[in-house]
UniProtKB/TrEMBL annotation:
SUPFAM superfamilies: P-loop containing nucleoside triphosphate hydrolases. The gene is hepA. InterPro entries: DEXDc_RapA (IPR057342), Helicase_ATP-bd (IPR014001), Helicase_C-like (IPR001650), P-loop_NTPase (IPR027417), SNF2-like_sf (IPR038718), SNF2/RAD54-like_C (IPR049730), SNF2_N (IPR000330). This is Superfamily II DNA or RNA helicase. SMART domains: DEXDc, HELICc. Residues 106-282 form the Helicase ATP-binding domain. One of its GO terms (molecular function) is hydrolase activity. Keywords: ATP-binding, Helicase, Hydrolase, Nucleotide-binding.
């Protein structure tokens, strides 16, 4: 016998639902009321399987007024193949915010899906992209998924996919690829073998790897940090290779492609246009100016593929408040100690001598000296520990052979490059010892009168002496450190758990060590690039277990690991030379999911430190000003390193006034003012372009009313976080658990008196604190519909209610007298199962959908007058206002059961209508499927299951 998908069968003394993966010989079954973990297969030639029909309730097993609502919620929360407009939402471990439906609705209207998600930092772009992927997978349109991302973000993606979307993805990194390939057959690619992969973009971009990936790539690709894949001009650099890779993916006409970035422009219009061209080749020829009524059709076409919103745009979207913390920003300054100031001036003079030293015979030597001096100054501004290490280390640029190569190495070690090629080793201290270069210079200049002077001036002896002086400045003579200790104590006293960002590894380790010795009962941990990514995250999680904690780290943590659950303050111990890096640092704590309503950001700099003063004046303050006026960050429109180089060239090549105010206003002097004006003008122009873009591409392709409609349909089909909360609290209480509210507005559950069977069903937990919406605080669980506690509780309630041999708190029938009705009203709790068939050509893809409905009628079954759905739903809140005996209740229910044949035609009519509604919703949200000739039909599995019969009798008039 062939069993239809969704039909009810009996085997092994229990009822099962037939799943779509079944074949003629092998039935894949889920136990009635069971979870995905209980799915099993039965080989028909060996085991008997019979058709089954759900029996009507036993009228003698009466429940109370709570039974219907509790059983309905348990059934609905148990669905994993829901009948709402989206196939995937019943399987998510997170409830998407209303605004996060917009990219999903946009994507489903495209064929293939080509989408650029460019929402602001901390809004949840990862969740938005994963929602699209999960929905396409659960609709059967996509079998394989690849996420391309920077290597340091790979584990974050793996965690998000597993924890929130139940997708187990393999990491494809240099450290894992060989192991994964061992499992491949001859000629088989690991991308053929593993359906879900997270791939390092930099690992796969090389020509050898790229060609294999393009050949075997999954149907759906998500590209994170997509701005790093924009076209960067002709060449063979890393960015060019990344662009070639993504362009190759986009060239496949049927491939679904989702680009994710918080900075689509990166300050460069051409790069932005190249990203748009990946979505649609026609976008490569967009007009330079998209404004004006004549370009409105073009703007709408682009807007169908491009979503970009600020926090202010979505904070109260559809009246659903999305809590973002208030950012409290402040500046703190320090002055160098006399000893430190003396060394600073000495090293600054040394740096000037170095770069000004005549050596016309070699531009390469000039560039080596330049980067050595600049690296030394930066290290000195950071800490005596970093300065001492730099002074003792051999300059990295010494191994280069050309000026261009020296510049490339120097920029990578000294500047704050945002390119992914520079991410690894980002916090390694540069070297400044160029004595080898000077020895070679002496040979070249032998016989020249000045050669002996050069040899003396740049000898390693001088560097070692300055290194010893720097070492002696550690601790009490380091005013920068001493003041930060006081500031950190203040942070902790006021309830803030800070992250202190440093530029170099020696600085972070030095600051952490000094803080440990100065702070009592506070755990201090340093995390730097010396640790592999997995261990960094492990260190952070271990630190989070301490009630009082301070994290000292380098920019190896400025991306990838979200830290809002553990920390609520950021201190910029060292100023970044790229303001975008500041925004990334602050974004680790200032994002959705931060449990505190305020986060603190402290920018820390020296008032008599020319290095800090210049960067603050030219970059940081301007960046703040633009962010304040626009509501978002706008990257520097030119290469930041070129700007900084120009500034420091003036510092090192021109003698400066000893006056502090003159030093801090260096860029306002006549020599620099034209450059500053031009630079700021470019930045402001980029800000205006960004502002126009956000106005121009405001999301108008998806109307608010469309989101409202689908949101209501989702909540009707599977419930919301409010339903999860009310069910969980009520169900635990009727099972003798004690539920109380904590001072932090979470719920505390004590299950010590609850039945052991219930505790076993939820994993053996006896006490815990929980919330049903993000954010959560330390020690709290986030309970969503797929959390093991909620899933286990729903399964326990439903199984005990449906099992005639078990005494359950939620019964399948009941009768109460209530003032909420004026006539006898009967409510039916029904479950419908549907077979959704998507047909393309001759191929059919069957899907199972389940739906729970409340139906109610007045009068007898023979002359039933059916209520509107809204009226029936209200009956779930009815409470008893009068008494009724058990015998009377059983008699009333038995009459309904005896005449149930009169109700069956209406139930089948409702099943057909619900099937039509489901078909319309399925087509509506995936309208673009028509472009591929996909046709849907829905077949209800009859008869529907009647899970419960509940009667509401009017209170007799006295």
């Amino acid at each position: 016998m062939t069993f239809a998908v969704g039909s009810l069968v009996k085997a092994r003394d229990r009822e099962w639902v037939v799943l779509p993966e079944s074949t003629e010989e092998m039935l894949i079954l889920r136990p009635l009321g069971g979870t995905e973990d209980e799915v099993t297969g039965i080989f028909l030639p060996l085991e008997p399987v019979e058709p089954a029909q759900f029996e009507l309730p036993d009228p003698k097993k009466l429940g109370d007024y709570r039974s219907c609502r509790m059983l309905r919620d348990a059934v609905r929360l148990g669905f994993r193949s829901s009948a709402g407009p989206f196939r995937s939402f019943a399987k998510l471990a997170v409830e998407p915010r209303p605004y996060q439906l917009v990219p999903l609705l946009m994507a489903l209207k495209l064929e293939p899906v080509r989408l650029l998600i460019a929402d602001d930092v901390g809004i949840g772009k990862t969740v938005e992209a994963c929602l699209v992927a999960k929905e396409l997978m659960d609709r059967g349109e996509v079998d394989r998924l690849a996420v391309l991302c920077p290597p340091h973000l790979a584990e974050q993606w793996q965690s998000e996919l597993k924890g929130k979307f139940h997708i187990d993805a393999e990491l494809v990194l240099p450290s894992t690829a060989t192991r994964l390939e061992r499992n491949c057959r001859l000629g088989q690619s690991l991308f053929d073998l593993y359906a879900y992969v997270i791939v390092s973009t930099d690992f796969i971009k090389s020509e050898h790897r790229r060609d294999e990936f393009l050949r075997t790539c999954p149907e759906l690709v998500i590209v994170d940090e997509a701005h790093t894949c924009a076209f960067a001009g002709e060449g063979r650099g890393g960015k060019h290779q990344r662009h070639q890779l993504i362009k190759g993916l986009a060239d496949a006409p049927d491939r679904h492609l989702i680009l994710v970035t918080a900075t689509p422009h990166s300050g460069k219009e051409a790069a932005f246009r190249s990203l748009l061209a990946l979505l649609n080749p026609d976008f490569a020829d967009l007009p330079d100016e998209l404004g004006g009524k004549e370009n409105e059709p073009i703007r709408r076409q682009v807007a169908a593929h491009f979503v970009q919103r600020r926090r202010g745009d979505i904070r109260s979207y559809l009246d659903a408040d999305t809590p973002f913390p208030e950012r409290l920003e402040a500046d703190e300054t320090y002055s160098l100690s006399p000893e430190y100031k003396k060394l600073f001036d000495r090293i600054l003079n040394y740096a000037r001598e170095t770069v000004q030293s005549p050596d016309a015979n070699s531009r390469h030597r000039q560039r080596v000296r330049w980067w050595s001096a600049l690296g030394l100054l930066r290290s000195l501004a950071s800490s005596p520990a970093a300065a001492a290490t730099t002074l003792r280390n051999r300059a990295d640029t010494l191994d280069t052979e050309t000026p261009e190569e020296a510049d490339e190495v120097g920029r990578r070690t000294v500047m704050d490059l945002m390119d992914d090629d520079a991410k690894e080793g980002i916090d390694i201290v540069p070297g400044a010892d160029i004595s080898e270069l000077e020895a070679n210079s002496e040979v070249v200049n032998r016989g020249v009168e000045e050669a002996p002077l050069l040899t003396t001036r740049y000898s390693s002896t001088r560097l070692k002496q300055m290194a010893r002086e720097a070492e002696n400045l550690k601790g009490s003579k380091d005013a920068k450190l001493q003041k930060i200790i006081t500031l950190v104590k203040d942070f902790l006293k006021n309830g803030f758990q800070p992250i202190i960002f440093c530029r170099f590894i020696p600085t972070a380790e030095y600051v952490a060590e000094e803080l440990r010795s100065s702070l009592r009962n506070v755990e201090v941990v340093a995390v730097t690039g010396t640790l592999p990514p997995a261990e960094r995250e492990e260190r952070v999680e271990q630190l989070a277990e301490s009630p009082q904690r301070v994290l000292v780290c380098t920019d190896c943590l400025s991306e990838g690991i979200n830290l809002q659950a553990y920390f609520n303050a950021v201190i910029h111990y060292d100023l970044s030379w790229n303001p975008t890096r500041h925004e990334q640092r602050e974004g680790r704590v200032d994002r959705y999911g931060q449990p505190q309503d305020k986060v603190r950001v402290l920018t820390y700099y020296g008032v008599d430190n020319q290095i800090d003063g210049i960067v603050l004046d030219v970059l940081i303050r301007k960046h703040r000003s633009i962010r304040s006026s626009l509501g978002i960050s706008v990257p520097v429109p030119v290469d930041t390193d070129q700007v900084v180089e120009a500034i420091f060239e003036g510092l090192l090549l021109r003698e400066q006034s000893s006056n502090v105010s003159d030093q801090l206003s260096l860029f306002d002097q006549d020599f620099f003012k034209p450059q500053k004006d031009q630079f700021f003008s470019q930045w402001e122009a980029a800000s205006e372009r960004e502002k126009r873009s956000r106005t121009m591409f405001a999301q108008e392709t998806i109307k608010v009313e469309d989101v409202v409609r689908e949101l209501q349909a989702i909540r009707s089909a599977i419930g919301s976080s409010v339903d999860v909360a009310s069910f969980t609290e009520a169900a635990f209480k009727v099972h003798q658990a004690v539920v109380s509210e904590t001072p932090t507005k979470a719920l505390a559950f004590d299950l010590s008196e609850a039945p052991q069977a219930l505790k076993d069903a939820i994993g053996g937990q006896e006490s815990f604190q929980a919330r049903f919406e993000l954010p959560i605080q330390d020690g709290q669980l986030y309970l969503n519909r797929t959390h093991p506690i909620v899933e286990g509780l729903a399964t326990h309630v439903m199984d005990t209610a449906l099992d005639p041999m078990v005494d359950s708190v939620a019964r399948r029938c009941g009768v109460i007298r209530t003032n909420q009705v004026s006539r006898r009203t009967t409510l039916l709790l029904t479950r419908f199962r549907f077979h959704i068939i998507a047909k393309q050509g001759d191929e059919e893809n069957p899907l199972l959908a389940e739906d729970c409905q409340i139906l109610a009628f007045t009068g007898s079954p023979e002359k039933a007058e059916w209520l509107e759905p809204g009226q029936a739903e209200k009956l779930l809140t009815a409470t008893p206002d009068g008494n009724i005996s058990a015998d009377q209740a059983t008699t009333f229910l038995q009459k309904v059961i005896d005449q149930f044949d009169h109700l069956s035609p209406h139930l089948e009519t409702v099943a057909q209508q619900r099937g039509n509604d489901l078909l319309e919703a399925h087509r509506r949200v995936r309208s673009a499927a028509k472009l591929k000739g996909v046709r849907y039909r829905v077949e209800p599995q009859l008869p529907p299951d009647v899970l419960g019969i509940y009667m509401f009798m009017p209170v007799p008039k006295t």
